[in-house]
Design brief:
The radius of gyration is 27 Å and the shape is elongated. By secondary structure, it is of the alpha+beta class.
Length: 364
């Protein structure tokens, strides 16, 4: 009799915990997931899409600091905490990088930031614009920990919020591929005959088309955008799931518990989805982890080509596209940082997939 301590799932979990690389990958993915959820809380620039542009300070190196004047607006915006977490803060403040400032009896006089102080522009703002508050509360030294991109946006904030795109594409694409792949693969493997032949013909046709070209075709048909890419990637990843499920079902349907279920008069769909599928999910879980990594790479490639998530939505692939020419201009970090982020997240999912494969292998 199996107990909780020696059940197959418990034994698989124990084997997984012994795999250091797999455990590291799991906790790295958990960290990235929390970062994606609370991106706007963690980001220094918590405006929507971290899209505050300051062309005066574009392409600055990591650790760059500058005096930043925040000019309040008369318009007030009320947002709930959950709205800020989901969509960012709709700030009524306008930020202006400055090199120095002075205060007269009625005005605030600033010199805008420029690399050449000889061409610095002088601007004047009435003190009444600051609602009678201390001017020092509106002028702070702002540090850009990863520098700024070519539009003067905070690169760290864009990276943090860009994590959402990679995680979203992974979850939604894998969910779509599982729904389609499990259903089609199960039908083909269980019923066989002409149904199996037709589904295998459909799978082979889809398999023969280069994945990237198929995704591009679906994306162009649905239109450019955030959700269109998710659907397009998901519609191209179901084939692998369907092939694995079909092969597993062909073997499993000859097992004694399936024959017993048939003898008890259970319907075919109950036998498939209640009895067989739960027993063949191990390889599906492994391939889903690999599909997570594949979906992230696919979205990054589409964003690099300009047909992924559209500006100003931050995407790691789009960041590489915007800055790859800077590699030969001495500012390679603008493209290397998002590239390392993609590589790290993909590697983490691959480590999880390999660890799951070893843990769920009954031969070990």
């Amino acid at each position: 009799m199996k107990t909780k301590a020696n059940s197959l799932s418990a034994l698989a979990l124990q084997k997984y915990k012994k795999n250091t690389a797999g455990v590291f990958g799991f906790w790295f993915v958990v960290l990235c997931a929390l970062t994606a959820i609370f991106a706007y809380v963690l980001a220094p620039d918590n405006s929507s899409n971290a899209n505050q542009m300051h062309l005066e300070i574009h392409s600055k190196k990591p650790g760059f600091e500058v005096l930043m004047l925040s000019i309040p607006s008369e318009k007030k915006i009320n947002q709930s905490f959950f709205n800020i977490i989901l969509f960012g803060k709709k700030s009524p403040l306008t930020e202006v990088p400055i090199s120095n400032y002075s205060i007269s009896a009625t005005d605030l006089i600033i010199n805008s930031y420029t690399e050449n102080s000889a061409v610095s522009l002088t601007k004047t703002f009435p003190l009444s614009k600051f609602q009678g508050k201390d001017i020092s509360t509106f002028i702070k030294t702002k540090k850009f920990y990863l520098g700024t991109d070519k539009y003067g946006r905070d690169l760290l904030s864009r990276m943090l919020i860009g994590t959402r795109i990679s995680f979203s594409i992974g979850f939604i694409a894998v969910f779509i591929s599982l729904v389609i792949g499990l259903f089609i693969g199960a039908i083909a493997g269980y019923f066989g005959g002409k149904i199996d032949a037709f589904i295998m013909w459909l799978i082979n046709i889809t398999w023969s088309i280069p994945t990237l070209l198929l995704v591009i075709a679906i994306t162009l048909a649905l239109g450019k955008g955030f959700w269109q890419v998710f659907i397009a990637v998901g519609l191209t990843m179901w084939v692998e799931v369907a092939r694995v499920v079909r092969g597993q079902l062909i073997s499993a349907k000859e097992m004694q518990y399936v024959e017993a279920a048939k003898a008890l008069g259970f319907s075919n769909f109950r036998i498939i989805f209640k009895h067989i599928l739960p027993n063949i999910m191990a390889p599906v879980i492994v391939i889903s982890a690999a599909n997570f990594a594949g979906a992230i790479l696919m979205e990054s490639g589409l964003s690099f080509l300009g047909i992924g998530a559209q500006p100003p939505t931050p995407s790691w692939g789009a960041m590489i596209k915007d800055h790859y020419s800077y590699i030969i201009l001495g500012k390679a970090y603008l493209a290397v940082i998002p590239g390392l982020a993609i590589m790290s997240l993909v590697m983490a999912f691959m480590l999880i997939g390999n660890a799951l494969r070893d843990a769920l292998d009954v031969k070990n």
